[in-house]
Amino acid sequence: DQQVKQNSPSLSVQEGRISILNCDYTNSMFDYFLWYKKYPAEGPTFLISISSIKDKNEDGRFTVFLNKSAKHLSLHIVPSQPGDSAVYFCAAAGATSGTYKYIFGTGTRLKVLA
Amino acid sequence: DSGVTQTPKHLITATGQRVTLRCSPRSGDLSVYWYQQSLDQGLQFLIQYYNGEERAKGNILERFSAQQFPDLHSELNLSSLELGDSALYFCASSAETLTDTQYFGPGTRLTVL
């Protein structure tokens, strides 16, 4: 049962344009959402997070939007840069099955073309 | 550099064997998490320890166990290894709770032949 889904395994975007990465979740108990970036041969790196009491959080070129009614969040990167090329994981945290824990999506590979 | 260290970087072993993966959290972090990333899969949360005690449990098999020691380093023990256990195993640490940012180590790549 995949509670956090990233339906696009890959995405290619031209340098300077906007990258939009999407994530859907099924469990309404999730109350905290995060995005991580992962380069090859490295561990994931925290990017940005959002609490369920907000619908938008911005940090420089990165903005996360949360639509609780649709159980959907998205990460916008603008402008996209070649160094943004990586795998992006969304994660949802909350009390599920009796314990509080993180559930990660399967990742979206972003390629920013120069 | 996240400040989280994991050893070894690579591990190759045979089916049926037992291995131990080690993780040292960032200085001052009390929580340690273990994740498994298989080929083409997302990160699967295995288990969390907080200040030496088990705090949360995810999809961890009974053949796997973990512990956190008084100096806060953690070990993940994998036994009766199967081919399907081949994966990247990540350790992460955070200050205290699950809503604190988790900092990931570089991972241990386990190959079971």
What does this structure look like?
The complex is a heterodimer of chains A (114) and B (113). Chain A is an all-beta fold and 114 residues long. Helix content of chain A is 0%, strand content 61%. Chain A contains no helices and 11 strands. Chain A has strands at 4-5, 10-14, 19-25, 30-38, 45-51, 56-59, 62-67, 72-77, 86-96, 99-104, 108-113. The termini of chain A are far apart. With 113 residues, chain B is mainly β. Helix content of chain B is 0%, strand content 51%. In chain B, strands 2, 4, 5, 6, 9, 10 and 11 form a 7-stranded mixed beta sheet that branches. Chain B has a 4-stranded antiparallel beta sheet with strand order 1-3-8-7, with no helix packed on it. In chain B, a hairpin with an 8-residue loop joins strand 9 (87-94) and strand 10. Chain B is globular. The interface between A and B is medium-sized, with 24 and 25 residues.
Characteristics:
heterodimer, A: 114 residues, mainly beta, 6-stranded mixed β-sheet, 5-stranded antiparallel β-sheet, 11 strands, B: 113 residues, 7-stranded mixed β-sheet, 51% strand, globular
Alpha plus pi helix count of chain A = 0
- Report the biggest beta sheet of chain A as strand number plus sense, adding barrel if it closes: 6 strands, mixed
The tally of strands of chain A reads 11
Q: β content of chain B, as a range?
A: over 45%
Q: Provide the low-confidence segments of chain A as ranges.
A: none
**N- and C-termini, Cα separation of chain A:** 38 Å
Q: Helix count of chain B, per DSSP? A: 0
Percent strand of chain A equals over 45%
Measured on Cα atoms, how large is the radius of gyration of chain A?
14 Å
Bin the helical content of chain A: under 10%
Form type of chain A = globular
The SSE string of chain B, one letter per element, is EEEEEEEEEEE
Structural category of chain B is mainly beta
Question: Which runs of chain B of at least 5 residues are low in confidence (pLDDT < 50)?
Answer: none
